[in-house]
Amino acid sequence: MRDQGQAGFIYTVEAFDRHGNPVGEKETVHNKMPVEFLDYMLNAAHKGGTQFTDWYVGLYSGNYSPTGNETMDTLPSACNEFSGYDGVMRPKAVFGNVVNGRLDNQDSLIELTFTQDVAVRGGFLTTGQGKGATTGICASVVRFNSPRQPGVGGVLRISVGQELIG
């Protein structure tokens, strides 16, 4: 749970090897919400600004720590975006209904099958769907507490949600 008055995205990640065995512990981590996303939320909610309904999750393998100043112009190269998983696009985060100030993808978890044996150190949420794309809004950047390396054929399962507490 977040402290009173704080807002942000919460990621839960689990890794499994190609045989379905857990690799490391399941972990839940809180993000940094870039200023770009804070401005977007306020504009969309209060000023009639553009609203986006499609959001995508990206992963990174670089030794990168979020600052809150990220934009999609520079993030993929700064964090060394990882694209060694099935599919030609970043996976879409399919969010359920908003309930009690919370939005998440619990009913449609993201599962990425790795095609490369690389440790990923974090992830991000964006409106840009192409792997490596530098367009769109950067909504969230998170660094995992420990790198995740399920190996070739292994799966990384991701839950992402946003909670606002008044």
Structure characteristics:
2 helices; 5-stranded antiparallel beta sheet; 166 residues; mainly beta
Overview of this protein structure:
- The chain is mostly beta strands.
- It has one domain (7-164).
- Helices cover 10% and strands 36% of the residues.
- The protein contains two helices and ten strands.
- Strands 1, 2, 6, 7 and 10 form a five-stranded antiparallel beta sheet that branches. Strands 3, 4, 5, 8 and 9 form a five-stranded antiparallel beta sheet that branches.
- The longest helix has 12 residues, at 35-46.
- The protein is globular and about 50 Å long.
- Residues 1-5 have low confidence and may be disordered.
Uncertain segments are 1-5
Rg from Cα: 15 Å
Largest sheet features: 5 strands, antiparallel
Give me the number of helical elements.
2
Assembly status: single chain
Secondary-structure element pattern, one letter each: EEHEHEEEEEEE
- Amount of beta strand: 35-45%
Could you tell me the number of beta strands? 10
- What is the terminal-to-terminal distance? 13 Å
Q: Compute the number of structural domains.
A: 1
Shape assignment: globular
